[in-house]
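Subject: for your reference before the review

Hello V.,

The reviewers asked for a structural picture of the protein, and I figured it would be easier to keep everything in one thread rather than splitting it across files. Below is the amino acid sequence we used in the manuscript, unchanged from the supplementary table.
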Amino acid sequence: MRNMKKKIFDIISALLVISILAFIFIQLSPGDPAENYLRASHLPITDELLKQKREELGLNSPLIIQYLKWLKNVLLGNFGYSFLRKEPAIYLTFKSLYATFQLTIFSTFLIILISLPIGILSAIKTGTWIDKIVISITTIFVSMPVFWLGFSLILLFSVKLNWLPVSGRGGFLNFILPSITLSVPFIGQYIEFIKKSILENIQNNLLENAVLRGLKKRYIIFNYLLKGAWIPILSGFSFTFVSILTGSILVEEIFSWPGIGFLFTKAIQAGDVPLIQACIMVFGMLFIIATHFMNGILKYLDPRIKGGKNNG
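And here is what came back from the structure prediction:
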C-alpha cells in the first residue's frame, strides 16, 4: 500500500511538472495566441479584435493566474477548443492517439519478429562470418537517420516502383513504410541487446551440462539460453514500445500519418495553443503511466526484483 501511494504521488508530481513545462513552452513561443486564433479563424487582425480575444483567452491576467486557471480546467478535462478545427483539443488528441497506437503495435511486432531470431543466431554464431555480417548490418541500422530512411523508402517503393502508398492511413499497405522507418534503428539496437543478454548466459554451468548431455540445440536455446535472458529482453521491448508510442513525431510527419505526432507538428506550425498543450500533456501522461506499468509488470515477473523489494 505504501509503495502504491508513493507511485501515485510520483505520477501526480511528474504530471504537475509537465503541466508547468507545457505552460512555459507556450509563453516562450514566438507569436501572440490571440493573433494565432484570429489567423486560424480567417478573421482580420485588428487592434479591436486582438484586444477582445486577449480578454477572452485571459491573456491580460498575471502569468500565475493564467496558469492556475488553465490547470483547473485541465483537471476537469477541459483543454479548450482547437484554434484550427474548432473542436475540443483533448478529443482531437485522443482521436489521433489511436492511429499512433496502431503504428506502434505494428512497428513493435516488426522489431520482435526480426531482432529476436537474428539476435539468437548472432549469439550462437558469435565470432563467425555470420556474426560479423550481423554486426555490420546492425551498425548501419543504428546509424541510419530516420528522415533519410523514410524519404529513401518513399522514393524507391512509392515513386520509382509504385508498389506502396506514399502517405496516409488506409489499409495494410499504408503501415509498411512508416513501420519499417520507425523500426529499423530499434532492430539494430535490439539484435545487439539480445545477443549480449544471451551470451551472458552461455557460461552458465547448467548450459554446459545440457550440451554434455547431448540435448538438441532448439531445446537448449529455448530452455537455457532464453530462460535467463528473457527478463532483460522483455524489459527492453516494453520500453521500446513506450518510446515508439511517444516518439513517432518525425515518422508521422514524413508519411502524413494522422497520429498524435502529426497533429502536434501541425498545431505548432499554426500556433494552436490548446492543441499544443493537450498534446504535451498526453505525451507526458502516456510516458509516465506506461513506464510505471511496465516497471510493475517486470517486478512481478522477475523474482530477483521482488526479492530485492521484500528485503528492503
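For the response letter, the relevant points are probably these. The mean pLDDT is 81. The longest helix spans residues 89-124.

Happy to draft the paragraph if you're swamped.

O.
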